Known about the structure:
The protein is mostly beta strands. 11% of the residues lie in helices and 34% in strands.
Amino acid sequence: MRVIVSRASSLKSRALFVCALVPIVCGLAVATPATAQYRARIDNDPGKCVAGAGPAVKVTVTGIKSGRGTLRVQSYRGTQAEWLAKGRWINRIEVPARAGAMTFCLPVPTAGSYGIAVRHDANNNGETDLKEDGGGMSNNPSINIFNLGKPSFRKTAFHVHDGVKSITISMKYM
């Protein structure tokens, strides 16, 4: 038995197939959870960490050794799969370093478990120089040669509710 498919029917089938593979091309909205958002470079906006705002993390970084270079503050989800995973940071703020203490506001997508990592690239070369650069993480875990500066998400994770969570991170230098 020979099946004859009309040209219109064949074109419609192909269009449906393409739309199933690439919904955005066909004008279909695809629901993606807030958890799919990564790598947003944002400005430090303290106004997002005032009373009644949130969810957000107000991060005070203390012990910044010098005003040379750049300070980078990144938020991650507090899970094993995402903590310090390449490209899995949610928000990043990069600013010129200032010796002493600096405060940052990092909005987060929803209430949940998060971790914050801070890096001071003192000579702005984009490399980690153990003699000059410093770092710190939420909950201030010990960082040493044995954990290669990557403590477990369990040691760095904290919970953010609908408001603003304030934390302090102490910088560590070699």
